[in-house]
Write a structure and sequence with these properties.
Strand content of chain A: 15-25%
Structural class of chain A: alpha/beta
CATH class of the largest domain in chain A: Alpha Beta
Number of domains of chain A: 2
CATH architecture of the largest domain in chain A: 3-Layer(aba) Sandwich
Largest sheet of chain A: 7 strands, parallel
Oligomer: homotetramer
Strand order of the largest sheet of chain A: 3-2-1-4-5-7-6
CATH superfamily of the largest domain in chain A: NAD(P)-binding Rossmann-like Domain
Chain lengths: ~350, ~350, ~350, ~350
C-alpha cells in the first residue's frame, strides 16, 4: 500500500532539487523524504553530500533505480531531472502506482509533435501526455488534485502565462497585434553543470539575450494562453544574479481601458489565489520582492491612450518557477492548504 | 585667442565626468585639461581628490565659475553636469567664444515645449536650442563638426536610435505597429549621488523596471527616428551591474525580409562608421563585448515569417552612451580621426 | 499584566529589523508582533510599507513612542535601533516592566568607560550596564534566560568570539603571540541609510579594508575571550555581496596539536549547541552554507608543525549576527527550544 | 635574424592571454603580434574568435607548434599557458634564439626540488631554472633587461612580495613572529576552464577560503622576502568579483615606529618606481583603484604601540598580477620606458 505522505525525490544534485529538499524537509504533512541520486559517492545522507543541510536536514540518500523507488512505500515521486531522464523514469513509477510530479519538459504538451519539434526527441507515450495535468494550480487546480502525473511548468512559461491569462480569458487583446514577452532570468535557471557560458567571469558584469524565437518554453505559452505563434514574440535574457525571473510583457488592447479596470480584471481573476499578488496601479514589483518565495507578483503600466499595456511579472525561478510550484501542486494532490511549507 | 586644444571640464565628480577625465587625459591631440568643481575641498589637482589618477593623471582642479573658465584660454568646454546647471552654464560660455559639448538633456530638443513637458522646467533660450547639434556622429557628423554647441545624447536614446535608424530611413517598419524598446541599464547611468534605491543592497541581486512610458529619453528617440509617440513603447530596467546598456527592440516589418537583407541594410548604413559594429546574422552582442569601450554593437534575429525582427543593441553607458561619444564629438569638432583616444 | 508572547519591535526600517520581522512573523509561540516606526507615512500595517510582506506578513505598524509601547500589553521589546536611540528607549521600557533585547552596542559592555572610549558618547546608566546579559546563548544561556535586558552582540564579534572561545577556555593559545582576526562582511552589515561609500557602483566589483585597529566590536572580542588588546589584531573588510561574514583567524598554539585534537576540542565545546556547526578537519565552511540561516559554521586548518592554526568562522550577519541571534535569545528568555522559528 | 619587436603569444584563450592581447595590440613599439592557439576552429584572426576585438584588434591567429613560432621572425614569445605546457614550449624556443616571458609557475624557482615539491611534477632542466629572471621589475630590473627567460611571478606573490620587501630589506620585522598574509582574489585568477566551483551561482554571493598553508605561490614569497616557511602564514580567498587581489598583511616590528617612518620607508624604497603607489598614512587603497591598471597600490595602518603593522596591497590580478607585469618586463627587455602601453 503506497503512502502519499512518503516522498521520493530524484535529482537532488541540481538547483531545483536542492530547493525541493529545502521545502520538503520542513513540510509538516510529510514524512522525511528519501533522495535518490545516480552516484552517491559513498554518502548515505543528504547532509554528508550537501553540508548546508547539516544539523537540520538529515534525510537518506540512496542510489537511484526504478526498483529502489517502487519497492519503497513511497506514494509520490518528484523528478527534478532532465527531460530525457524524466521520460524514462516516470512511466514505470506510474505503472507501479506512484503519483509523479515531473519538473522537466517531458510531459508538458498534449501533442507528441509539439514535444518532438521543440525538443528534437521522440515524445513519451501518448497515454502519458494526455493524462498529465499542467501544473499551474491557479489555472488547473482540479485536474492537478486528481492527477497521477503532473507536468510542472517551465519557469519562464509560468511567469508569462500567469500575466497573460486574465487578458486572454477576457478577450481583451487586440487581434493581429504582437504580444512581446521580454524575459530575464538569473543563472540558476540554466542548471548546475559547469559550462563556459555560465562560468562566473562570463556572467558577472555581463547581460545578454539568448533563445530569441527559439526557446523551448514557447509552446507552453501558446498552449495555455491560446495565442498563436505568429502573435507571440518571446525572448530570454541572462541576468548576472542567481535567482529570479522578471518578464516585461507588451500588449495592445482591443479597446481603451482605465488603470482601475485593468487592476480590477487581475484582482478578480486571482481572487482566492494567494500565491499570485497583484500590485496596485502605479507600482511595479521587483525581483527582490519574490526571491526565496513562492509568489508570482504582477504589476502593470498603461499608456495615456489606454490601449498599450505593459505587464511586469516576477517570480523566483527555483520557487514559483520550479520547486515551490511543484510543492504547491503536491499540496493540491494531497488535498491540503496549497501554501503549506511555502511561506 | 581661444585654443581648441585647451579643454575645460565641468562636473568631474560624477561617473560621466570621471570617464571623460580618463579619456581626455590620454588624448594625444590635447593639452592637459583643466577640471572645474563646485567644491574643491582644498584640493588642487585631480589625483588628490580621486586617488585612482595618482601617478598618471595629474591635472589641475579649480573652483567652478563662468569667469574662471572664460578667462582661461580654453577653446572647448565639456559640461558633465545636471541639466539645470548646463542650462545655466552653457550660454555665457558660448557667448565668450567657447564651443560647448553638453552631456545633459538641456539642449537635446529643437522645441522648447518638448523640453518643458518632459523636464518640467522652462527651456533654455530658443536661440541655443536651434543651434545645438545632436551629438550622434554616425548620423550628424557634419553638423557636429561645425557646431558651437553639441548636445550629447541620452545613453538609452543612443542605443535605440542607432538600432532603428537604418530601418526608419529605409522605410521598412510596418505602419501602425508597435516598436517595443525594452532597455536595460547598469547603475552608473543613474548617477553618483547616494539614493536609497541605488544603495548596494537594494540593487545587488535585484532587477526592476522603471520609467515605463515616462522616461525622458523618449522624445529624443521620437525626434531622431521619426516614429510617433503612439508607435513607440519605451521601457527601462535597472541591472545589478555598474556599466552597460542592452536594448532589445521589437519591430514588425512591412514586408518579409531575409536575414541577409537585414544584415546588408545595417552594414551599408554603418559602412565607414567604425564605432558601430554590426554582428553577423545568427550571433548577438553581449554587454561584455562593449564594456569600457566606445562601441555600439548591434545584432538581430528574424523569425521564420521574415517580418518580426528583434534587434539587440549594446553599449557602455559611460562610453558611447556619454563620455566616449562626447570625445568622439570633440574629435569631429577638431577635425581629427573620430576614434582618437577611444580605443 | 505583561504578556511575554506579545512582542514590540522598534526599528523595522533597517535590515536587521526587517529580518527580525521575517522571523518573528513565523514564530509559532508568539502573537503577531507590533512594529513601531518613527514615521509611518500614513501606513498602518507592515505590508503597506514593505510590499514583500504582502499576503503573508500582515502586522500592525504604529508610531513610535515609549508610551505607545508601555501602554500595550507587550512583555518583550526588540530594539533594532542605533545605539543612541537604544540608550534612550531601553531604560523607560525596562522600568515599565518589559524585558528588552537590544541589537545595538549601547549595553554590550560592563564598563561605562569602555563604551565611552569606543563610542565617544556618555554611557547608559551603570545599573543597566551591569544588568545586561551578553547575548551569545552558546556561552551565556543561563544569564540570558533570566535577564531583563539582553545586549545582542556585534556581528563580527559573534563570529570571532565563537571561534576563539574553545581555545581561550582551554588555555591553548601561546602567550605573547598575535591573534589576527581578518574579517570580511557583506554590505547589509553597514545599514540601510544611503551613503556614498555604500552606493551600488562603489561596492560592486570593489573590495576594501576599513576599521583596522579601530572597529567598535573590538572591546566585545577582548571582554569575551579574555585576550588583551595588545594581543588581538582585528581588521574588517567590505565584500561586494549583501549578506554574510567570514572571519579568518590566525592563532599560534602553546604546544603542537593534531587536527584530531583540535576538532575534538571544538566538538566537545559546542556539543548540544546545534546553531554552531563544526566542520570536519580538511574542510572549510563558505558563506553560501550559512546565508539566510542562524548557523555559525567553524572550520580550521593546522600547519605541519601543529602550532599554527587558522580558523574560518562564517555566519549571516543578519541571522546569527543580528536578528537570528536575537530570536535565539528570545527563545531562551521564553524557556522554549532555542531553534524555534530559526530553521 | 630575430626581430625583438615581433612578438609571438601562446595561450590567448585564457584570461591572462586575452589581457595580454589587449595591451600588446596597443603597444606603440611593437609590430602586430601573432597569436598561437592549440585549436583555431578554422578561424584565422583574433577578432573572428573573440568578437570584442572586432574593428580595432585585428591580428593573425595561427595553429600552435614550436616550428611555426621558430620559423617566424619573432624575437620574443609570451607563454600564457599552464606550467606543463610552458615547461615543454620554453626550452625549444629559447634554443632557437627567442627570448621568452613565461606567465606560468614553471620557471619561478631556482631549486628544482622546490618546483617538484609544490607542483608534484619533474622540474624543467636546471639550466633554465638558474637562468630565469624573476619578473618583478621593481626588484630585479637589471636581470630582467638582460634575461633570455623571464618567469613572470604569481599574482598573489607579486602583491605580497611588493608589500613586504621594504620591511625585510630594512630588517624591521621582529624575528620569530608570524607574518600573516590574508589574500583575497577575484575569480579570473582561477582561469577560464569551466569548473563546478567557479560556476556563476557558486561564486556569486559567496566567499570562501582555500589553499590555506598549501598555495603554490608560497615558495615564491619565501624566496623573495627571505622569510622562513615557519614564519609566513599565507591564505587565499575567492571574492565574488572578476578582477583584483587585495592582500592584508600582518607584521610585528622589531621596534616601535611612527607612521611617518613607515611611510618614508616605503616611499624611499619605491622612489622612481611609478607602478607601485604608496598611499599616504591614514588612507588605504581599494580594489577599484587598481582594476584594469598595472598599478600595485600599498597602504598601511599602525597600532598605537607602533609595533603592529597592517599592510594592504592591491593589484589587478590580470594587470600587475599577470599580463600587465609581463609587458612591463618586456619593456625592460626592449630597453624602453617601462610604462609603455600600460596606462
Amino acid at each position: 500500500m503506497r503512502d502519499p505522505r512518503q516522498i521520493a525525490v530524484v535529482g537532488v544534485a541540481g538547483y531545483s532539487g536542492l530547493e525541493l529538499a529545502r521545502i520538503l524537509l520542513r513540510h509538516p504533512a510529510l514524512q522525511t523524504p528519501v533522495f535518490y541520486v545516480r552516484d552517491a559517492n559513498g554518502t548515505k545522507c543528504l547532509s554528508e553530500r550537501f553540508p548546508q543541510f547539516r544539523g537540520w536536514g538529515e534525510a537518506p540518500l540512496r542510489l537511484l533505480s526504478v526498483e529502489a523507488i517502487t519497492s519503497s512505500g513511497a506514494g509520490i515521486a518528484f523528478l527534478a531531472t532532465p527531460h530525457e531522464a524524466s521520460a524514462e523514469l516516470a512511466p514505470p513509477l506510474l505503472q507501479a502506482g506512484l503519483r509523479v510530479v515531473d519538473l522537466s519538459g517531458a510531459f508538458r504538451f498534449r501533442g507528441a509533435e509539439t514535444f518532438t519539434s521543440w525538443y528534437k526527441l521522440p515524445a513519451p507515450h501518448a497515454e502519458w501526455l494526455s493524462e498529465a495535468a499542467y501544473g499551474i494550480p491557479e489555472l488547473y487546480c482540479e485536474e492537478i488534485a486528481a492527477a497521477r502525473l503532473v507536468a510542472n511548468p517551465g519557469c519562464y512559461a509560468t511567469s508569462v502565462i500567469l500575466a497573460l491569462r486574465p487578458l486572454t480569458d477576457a478577450g481583451w487583446i487586440a487581434p493581429n497585434t504582437s504580444v512581446v514577452c521580454d524575459c530575464k532570468s538569473g543563472a540558476s535557471g540554466a542548471g548546475k553543470d559547469p559550462r563556459r557560458d555560465l562560468h562566473f567571469v562570463e556572467v558577472d558584469q555581463n547581460f545578454k539575450a539568448y533563445g530569441v524565437f527559439t526557446h523551448r518554453h514557447t509552446p507552453e505559452i501558446l498552449e495555455h494562453t491560446g495565442l498563436s505563434e505568429s502573435q507571440v514574440v518571446f525572448s530570454t535574457h541572462l541576468l548576472p544574479l542567481a535567482r529570479g525571473i522578471l518578464s516585461t510583457i507588451y500588449v495592445t488592447l482591443k479597446q481603451p481601458r482605465t488603470v482601475a479596470e485593468v487592476e480590477e480584471l487581475f484582482r478578480r481573476f486571482y481572487a482566492g489565489r494567494p500565491m499570485v499578488r497583484i500590485w496596485p496601479a502605479g507600482t511595479l514589483p521587483e525581483l527582490q520582492h519574490v526571491a526565496h518565495t513562492n509568489f508570482c507578483d504582477i504589476g502593470f503600466a498603461l499608456d495615456s491612450s489606454g490601449r498599450r499595456l505593459v505587464l511586469v511579472s516576477c517570480l523566483d525561478n527555483l520557487g514559483k518557477g520550479a520547486a515551490g510550484q511543484a510543492v504547491q501542486n503536491l499540496n493540491h494532490m494531497l488535498g491540503i492548504e496549497e501554501q503549506t511549507s511555502l511561506q
